[in-house]
Write a structure and sequence with these properties.
Among the domains are: 96 residues, no CATH class; 90 residues; 186 residues, Elastase, domain 1; 163 residues, Neutral Protease Domain 2 (Neutral Protease, domain 2, Orthogonal Bundle); 95 residues. The longest helix is centred in the middle third of the chain and has 23 residues. Helix 7 packs across helix 8 and helix 13 packs antiparallel against helix 16. It has 16 helices and 51 strands. Strands 1, 2, 3, 4, 5, 6 and 7 form a 7-stranded antiparallel sheet that branches. With 941 residues, the protein is α+β, with helices and mostly antiparallel strands.
């Protein structure tokens, strides 16, 4: 697992889908459930589940209401219209999104919510019908429908500006292990425009949806960035990465259409033999060409199964397309050569047929798309000139690596093939958003069916210890247990094991948390009859689940599907008990223990850092009262009063705030009074008072706003003149630039008591010099500068996180060589010398590091007494759990041994220091990002 590095900047990146879209805890709507519905005290199937941030219910079961008519769509729409008091759904906002027809005649009508004719992201509402004609009736209904939307429906930011903002959003997310810079990710990147959508939550938010992809395989491979840019104010409202590989970062499940396949000559069905990856002969269904030769084309299924051999070509050549010169694996006779096995082609061919047969014969589904669409596999691809130890469904076909010295061809693992092709089934049914809990559900369902397909087709009993392993056959050496990428019997629970990851880590934990749910589903399969369990999970997927659903929604969907299948109460309780055992029950997030105190819940970003001073904090979030855009709020560190909004409701986005405890300053983005998009620096007293415009200008970019004693400083780039550097507004006067030497650049401002600090860099031949620098406002000149050894053209050392405190300048030096650790340095303000406050060394043991990993510092805060730093989590080779996420450590300002600031188990980001040892930070432990505080270090956890 590769964890992306985190570089705060002027971009709004969602932390989890619930937080970004404003989906909070369930609030009971103002209506009652259907009369005679089941009681939760006596029946595990809920009769009514309230929706979140909406008056429409998430689920209504136990119905038997007439809905006569030959057209199920119109019958479903009429039912919703006739029961407005129950559903609060406006039928005029519903667009038909398809009808799922089960083998038993049951129909599920899917509607997509449209607001002002614009799709609402992830909003699907479902109605379940049984019977025919005059005897047709509604059995249940539910999904996501948002009742409080008031967002504008007219785009005001030009298309080109939105497109450039979308491409720019990949900068912070594209850095892998410190080896690739964001500029490399943007070079050659293109943004595919999917049009306008409304992001739900509160009043909603009008955005334009782009999928950003690049051409450099070293950076992009087959991944993509989904970016939603606010179409009214021009800020990135939501951005997350989707990636194809199974073992590294999971499936892409892209919806884009594959390029046209080469025209196929007429084939006749035939049978032959081909060796598998282990050299064993296997019977294969093949196609005979007019010239008497044969190809791996199976014509015996309604869905044609075709297997291609990439012969070592790059995976980028097959990214959502099939090159015209690629042909199916072929043989002159019905006896296919050994290369068909060593490439993985035989196994891929057999796996595709096994997946098809499982869904058709066991579940009544006609292929991956439900319409007998062709099933295509490509084997033996490479990645960036090296073996690709991976497999994935790219949205249209299977792509397999050809193996390496460590791994067999990835097509050898039928459970992996089933897992990946199930992502295709998910796309055509629930269509989960690949982010946070909904993304983890996508992985969990694929986990379950991948293993179910393997054990069923190979006749492996559920009692076999290997039945619960995923990918156990891939390794050339080692035990199956060591090789398996996941195991569905790991007994993980929400309360004990949920990984509190922000969107920048595994898209909010989509793989890290999947086995919590797939483990519950697998327990159901081990307890009930396996065929019944498969039908139960499939019905929940195909008929109840929707794109934004979470873990508890999945529980309720499976139980509702169980009722539809006729499970008796005892078996329904068995299903409920499996979810209970994995902690999947209403309110589970509240059961995760934390030792911090929340100040602001469910912030919409972890990249826009808060600030604090003198017992007051400021933070930016897209709260429900902000009408969708980011707004700046302030409050007391004691949390004794409700947060107060500082920024005006002027249709712009307000964020990246700073404070000195008396005044706040921040950046506003959006159309100005002249209608042109731009950035403006604003300031306001924390206790109220007039709003002051510090600076605004056309074609300019603002970053690193800082405030001290009411003075405001920031970095300003003027695109018209090409000038970039720090500027200062003193005593309310217009900003004046602070001159830098020609060719020098400044980044990372710190501002305190008349001193301004930044990291200055310049080119000296082939060497890039970086130097923490202190500028005195009183003297009007630089008074201290420390050139960092080892910073050169190769970028050997990163320098940043400057802080001015206790009469010293602090900064962090981090070598790009990940085998070396970070150092916190302290320099005198007159330039007379620097010393190590915390020398480079190994990170203290946190479960996976065991004291052997180099310390990598991702953020720094300092007060008059203590220094707090965020230690980047993850081993050099990647991480798999909470211990691999960033954690906060604190040590005295004079130096000493660091102690854990907090024992919260999830990711801890953007620390800011207040007085003494008090620290605030953004914490993702509970599956969302909260602004929290602690008064002192926790010590040893």
């Amino acid at each position: 697992m590769h964890h992306r590095s985190r570089t705060p900047g002027p971009k709004l990146l969602g932390v989890a889908i619930a937080a970004v879209l404003g989906l909070g805890v369930a609030v009971p709507p103002a209506f009652a459930g259907p009369a005679g519905g089941p009681s939760v005290e006596t029946d595990p199937v809920p009769g009514l589940v309230a929706g979140s941030d909406t008056a429409a219910p998430q689920l209504v079961t136990g119905l038997a209401e007439a809905a006569p008519g030959d057209n199920p769509v119109e019958a479903a729409r009429a039912h919703l219209a006739a029961h407005q008091d129950r559903y609060r759904v406006d039928p005029a906002q519903l667009a038909e999104a398809g009808v799922e027809r089960a083998a038993d005649g049951r129909r599920t009508v899917r509607f997509e919510q449209r607001y002002g004719g614009i799709p609402v992201f992830g909003a699907r509402y479902l109605v379940h019908l049984v019977g025919e004609g005059a005897g047709q009736r509604v059995e249940s209904a539910g999904g996501k429908y948002f009742t409080g939307l008031t967002a504008p429906t007219a785009q005001t930011v030009p298309d080109d500006a939105l497109r450039q903002l979308a491409i720019g959003a990949v900068q912070d997310n594209a850095v892998q292990g410190g080896a690739v810079q964001g500029g490399a990710a943007r070079a050659g990147a293109a943004a595919e425009d999917h049009g306008l959508v409304v992001l739900p939550g509160g009043a909603g938010r009008l955005a334009r949806h782009f999928t950003v992809r690049g051409s450099d395989p070293a950076v992009w491979a087959t991944k993509a960035q989904e970016v939603f840019v606010d179409a009214s104010v021009g800020e990135v409202a939501l951005s997350y990465e989707v990636r194809a590989p199974y073992r590294l970062d999971g499936p892409a499940a892209a919806a884009a259409a594959v390029g046209a396949a080469p025209a196929a000559p007429a084939l006749e069905p035939a049978t032959g033999t081909a060796p598998d990856a282990l050299g064993r002969p296997a019977r294969v269904n093949i196609g005979r060409l007019p010239d008497g030769s044969y190809q791996l084309v199976d014509l015996t299924h309604p869905a044609t199964v075709t297997t291609y051999d990439a012969a070592g070509r790059e995976e980028m050549d097959f990214n959502r397309t099939l090159p015209a010169d690629v042909r199916p694996a072929a043989s002159a006779t019905t006896e296919f050569p050994a290369a068909t096995g060593t490439s993985g082609a035989t196994d891929a061919h057999l796996n595709a047929a096994a997946v098809h047969d499982f869904y058709r014969d066991r579940l009544g589904r006609d292929g991956i798309d439900g319409k007998a669409g062709p099933i295509v596999s490509v084997v033996n691809v490479t990645s960036n000139g090296a073996p690709m130890d991976n497999a994935y469904w790219d949205g249209t076909k299977m792509v397999y690596g050809g193996g390496s010295a460590e791994y067999r061809p990835f097509a050898v693992a039928r459970d992996v093939a089933g897992h990946e092709m199930t992502h295709g089934v998910v796309k055509y049914t629930a269509d989960f958003v690949d982010l946070g809990q909904s993304g983890a559900l996508d992985e969990a369902v694929a986990d379950y069916f991948g293993n179910a397909i393997e054990v069923t087709s190979r006749g492996i009993p559920m009692t076999d210890p290997r039945a619960a392993l995923l990918g156990e056959d891939l390794c050339r050496t080692g035990t199956p247990e060591d090789c398996a990428g996941r195991r569905l019997d790991d007994r993980r629970t929400t309360v004990a094991d949920y990984v509190g990851a922000p969107v920048g880590v595994d898209s909010g934990g989509v793989h890290l948390n999947s086995t919590i749910v797939s483990g519950a589903l697998w327990d159901i399969r081990r307890t009930l009859d396996p065929l019944l369990a498969d039908r139960l999970v499939y019905r929940a997927l195909a008929e109840y689940l929707t794109p934004l659903d979470d873990f508890v929604d999945a529980r309720n969907a499976v139980l509702a599907a169980g009722r539809a299948l006729g499970l008796d109460r005892a078996r329904l309780r068995t299903v409920a008990a499996a979810f209970d055992a994995h902690g999947i029950k209403d309110g589970w997030q509240r059961r995760i223990g934390v030792d911090s105190r929340p100040l602001l819940r469910e912030l919409s970003t972890e990249s826009v850092a808060p600030d604090a001073a003198a017992g007051r904090w400021v933070a930016a979030t897209a709260g429900k009262g902000a009408k969708g855009s980011m707004a700046v709020h302030t409050g007391a560190v004691t949390g004794s009063a409700e947060p107060v909004r500082l920024s005006p409701e002027d249709g712009r986005s307000h964020g990246w705030p700073a404070t000195d405890g008396t005044t706040a300053a921040w950046v506003a983005m959006g159309p100005g009074a002249d209608g042109n998009w731009g950035m403006e620096v604003l300031a306001r007293p924390l206790d109220g008072g007039p709003l002051r415009s510090v600076h605004s200008g056309a074609n300019q970019f603002v970053a690193d706003v800082r405030v001290s004693g009411g003075d405001v400083a920031f970095l300003l780039t003027d695109h018209a003149t090409g000038r970039s550097g720090p500027v200062l507004s003193h005593a309310g006067a217009p900003v004046v630039p602070i001159a830098l030497t020609e060719g020098h650049q400044a980044t990372g401002l710190a501002f305190h008591d008349g001193l301004l600090a930044w990291t200055e860099s310049w080119q000296a031949g082939e060497r890039t010099v970086s130097a923490p620098t202190v500028y005195s406002l009183a003297a009007g000149k630089v008074v201290a500068q420390y050139v960092v050894d080892g910073a050169n053209a190769a970028g050997d050392t990163a320098v940043g996180s400057l802080r001015l405190v206790g009469g010293r300048l602090l900064w962090v030096e981090t070598p790009f060589d990940r085998t070396k650790g970070s150092t916190i340095r302290s320099g005198a303000l007159d330039g007379s010398g620097a010393a190590d406050l915390l020398p480079a060394g190994s990170r203290p043991g946190t479960g996976t590091g065991t004291g052997t990993e180099p310390r990598r510092i991702a953020g720094l805060a300092a007060s008059d007494r203590a220094v707090t730093f965020a230690e980047a989590g993850g081993r050099v080779t990647g991480g798999t759990g909470n211990t691999d996420l960033p954690k906060l450590w604190q040590l005295p300002l004079t130096g000493g041994t660091p102690e854990r600031m907090s024992c919260n188990r999830g990711g801890q980001y953007s620390p800011v220091a207040d007085r003494g040892t008090r620290v605030l930070w953004l914490d993702a432990t509970a599956g969302r990002t909260d602004l929290v505080v602690r008064e002192r270090a926790a010590g040893t956890c």
